[in-house]
Amino acid sequence: xxxxxxxxxxxxxxxxxxxxxxxxxxxxxxxxxxxxxxxxxxxxxxxxxxxxxxxxxxxxxxxxxxxxxxxxxxxxxxxxxxxxxxxxxxxxxxxxxxxxxxxxxxxxxxxxxxxxxxxxxxxxxxxxxxxxxxxxxxxxxxxxxxxxxxxxxxxxxxxxxxxxxxxxxxxxxxxxxxxxxxxxxxxxxxxxxxxxxxxxxxxxxxxxxxxxxxxxxxxxxxxxxxxxxxxxxxxxxxxxxxxxxxxxxxxxxxxxxxxxxxxxxxxxxxxxxxxxxxxxxxxxxxxxxxxxxxxxxxxxxxxxxxxxxxxxxxxxxxxxxxxxxxxxxxxxxxxxxxxxxxxxxxxxxxxxxxxxxxxxxxxxxxxxxxxxxxxxxxxxxxxxxxxxxxxxxxxxxxxxxxxxxxxxxxxxxxxxxxxxxxxxxxxxxxxxxxxxxxxxxxxxxxxxxxxxxxxxxxxxxxxxxxxxxxxxxxxxxxxxxxxxxxxxxxxxxxxxxxxxxxxxxxxxxxxxxxxxxxxxxxxxxxxxxxxxxxxxxxxxxxxxxxx
Amino acid sequence: xxxxxxxxxxxxxxxxxxxxxxxxxxxxxxxxxxxxxxxxxxxxxxxxxxxxxxxxxxxxxxxxxxxxxxxxxxxxxxxxxxxxxxxxxxxxxxxxxxxxxxxxxxxxxxxxxxxxxxxxxxxxxxxxxxxxxxxxxxxxxxxxxxxxxxxxxxxxxxxxxxxxxxxxxxxxxxxxxxxxxxxxxxxxxxxxxxxxxxxxxxxxxxxxxxxxxxxxxxxxxxxxxxxxxxxxxxxxxxxxxxxxxxxxxxxxxxxxxxxxxxxxxxxxxxxxxxxxxxxxxxxxxxxxxxxxxxxxxxxxxxxxxxxxxxxxxxxxxxxxxxxxxxxxxxxxxxxxxxxxxxxxxxxxxxxxxxxxxxxxxxxxxxxxxxxxxxxxxxxxxxxxxxxxxxxxxxxxxxxxxxxxxxxxxxxxx
Lengths: 547, 413
Prior knowledge:
The structure holds two protein chains of two kinds.
Chain A: H1 2-15, H2 17-46, H3 50-68, H4 75-100, H5 112-121, E1 123-124, E2 131-138, E3 144-149, E4 155-159, E5 165-166, E6 178-179, E7 182-184, H6 194-198, E8 210-212, E9 215-217, E10 220-221, E11 223-226, E12 231-234, E13 240-244, E14 249-251, H7 253-262, H8 268-273, H9 291-298, H10 300-303, H11 306-336, H12 342-354, H13 357-368, H14 374-383, H15 393-421, H16 425-434, H17 438-466, H18 469-476, E15 481-482, E16 489-490, H19 495-504, H20 512-546
Antiparallel strand pairs in A: 1-10, 2-3, 2-7, 2-9, 3-4, 4-5, 6-7, 8-9, 11-12, 12-13, 13-14, 15-16
Helix pairs in contact in A: 2-3, 3-4, 4-20, 9-20, 11-15, 11-17, 12-15, 13-18, 15-17, 17-20, 19-20
Chain B: H1 2-24, E1 27-32, H2 37-51, E2 54-59, H3 62-72, E3 81-85, H4 89-94, H5 105-108, H6 113-118, E4 120-121, E5 124-125, E6 127-133, E7 136-139, H7 151-163, E8 169-171, H8 178-187, E9 193-195, E10 201-206, H9 211-225, H10 235-243, E11 247-252, H11 257-263, E12 268-270, E13 285-293, H12 300-311, E14 318-322, E15 325-329, H13 331-335, H14 344-349, H15 353-361, E16 366-367, H16 374-389, H17 395-410
Parallel strand pairs in B: 1-2, 1-3, 8-11, 13-16
Antiparallel strand pairs in B: 3-13, 4-5, 6-13, 7-11, 7-12, 9-10, 14-15
Helix pairs in contact in B: 8-9, 16-17
């Protein structure tokens, strides 16, 4: 330790001023980074985005620590990469887990602070409350005042925090342009002054007038927040709403109990769907523990079509991987031979890979249409029978698998071409000497060596297809429908498209909490399958060692 | 040295000054789609020139506005005003994101009552409408003389046209889409949600499996069984058939007028719908588009003033380019060009007979339910119609099962 110190200080003294300048520049950069980070953190916290603010603060702290700890010196050079990984990869994962534990959804969008602010701002016009047309005036000190007129023909001059003064128009019914040093606001400033004007209260303090929707109105705050009791009182009907942090709603206990008495299965969220205004059923984000997971696993949605959908998802992914790999490898092998115009073929065969999947699938959808599509109508003419590609579950699945084969084989053709070229030709010579025929060469030499390098890509392809939302959604939106289930689902829906419908198409609009929970479940499934597959890869690697 | 320091100080002062004035100035941010944005941009320029308030129009896809607004507004980065459809009200107000509008009755008298009704949620107005849209019954006058009086006549006419080889198909509709099925469903007395005493939609009264709804779907089942409806018809296929003269009758909305006109096929937009078995005329859903003010806006008063005194003023003239043509007029007129306007003077000024017919077809229209429960309805309802069209379910089974699915979801899954 002391040796390091000596050498460091020795180095500093020998290079003298330039090291000092370097240090100063370093500190200056660090200060700039910290200031920027502080700015972001404060803004995020002010908007109530606490999670990211805290994460960002921790990242900044990390950056500072490694600059000042000598033993962490090597980390400095990879710190930008670490920071990016933290912000782009780790944070989203952590956030997904966090959201899955909250009730973040339509109706529970805002944070509690935001809800309290929004509800507190709600105002109402008490019975008999005054409403005036107004003209804005301003004096040289920049203070505003209003000239008020109402339908009864009365006119008042109102300043901030002072009683109203009655004013009289002149003989022609016009009011003076200047009253008590206040001059009428020119037309050009009417709109730019509105932000300031609408924040002011005019007239006496107990009966203030505020500008709202183009008039001066004697509005009163409708909901009074009591921070000690954590409750709102509605001044219109005297009802009290207590914050219930376990469910994330301000609840009127009597109302909810009445609803429960009428139907013991009333869920708080459906109870609030029936409330007339946001203020009376104000919902905010809270942690609800494993609620979303229990909801998912106990919902009729899971009892219903999930097994069917899961089976189809796995079938779809497996068949897609093996069909694309087989066709890709076959073409790669064919192109390996001295085919004439090889490069032209290869280029043409890559085309499906170069077209965006969404466009390709939509085009296929059009071409397969039994009435209008080139392929569909030709087939119906030849067969004298319309193949129900869109209305029969089996045919729809066949079509999807074929389209996915068309989309996916160029990838494996490219990969296999590369991998085949990497197999040394003397191995084949040796095999020929040993008397192996072409088929045996392929089975015992080409395939094992190929799988060493292509194996991991097969797994990646499986994972990709397991979550291949685009092809399902673009081809037929998961249809034809299954109607015998408790929730809407389609015969060609895979897990991810079903989850999408469940989370965003169900009764409550966007339900991010539930969607995150489902995502995590899907992640666990895919991770499990992938781990199984890696075991096979290890076997392939062993094969390659033996070869 | 001194000059350098002075220079630096001046620079800092200038920078601070610019920032300072930028903060002092109020500005309006509006989110609009590509059709509406040019009008608002032009309008914004005039507003800024006259009143010194900058208007920033940010262009988003119509459907994206809702989703982005939901996350941006609470984060303090959202717009002051958005344009959108009235059926977003349920989910947006449920999250407290919209500002109620309190406007003069005299001012509101300029707007179509049905459009205002659409933007009224729980007896509170949340939006200023500029256009309405609904589907209508269209026919090819070379094949069909006049609007058939009943859906049974549509059936018989379709059979006759096909039999006599006049056209490939008679009436053709999109396979599943329940929005386009609604005029048939209502003609037979069916409904989706009933109304309570106050005239608001009542989520307790689900009508998907009501007698009338099933009667309508049974009519459709028979139509399909008679071999009159081709397979796998989506929006594009339906229009291609009609535009090629292969289909004689369709139900579609004003958004399709452009492509129908371009195709050159003769067409008539019928101001009425055929009646159902009981002599009830079908009613389409009414969609309303309009401006909404964010409850997180820091310039609400300004936003409301901009809408009521500028956007809804007939004294302001705006010129925009639509394709190669220059269009001139007051904002509400220009905003309502591609749909029947919700602003009555603009609606009356629009002499295009097709839009007049669309307007008439929508006089009895029911506002598309904005209640959040509607989210649970669309897919199950649509799947039921699809299943019948594909011949995999009977009408009664399909709607009973769909209603079962919807009730399960409404009860909270």
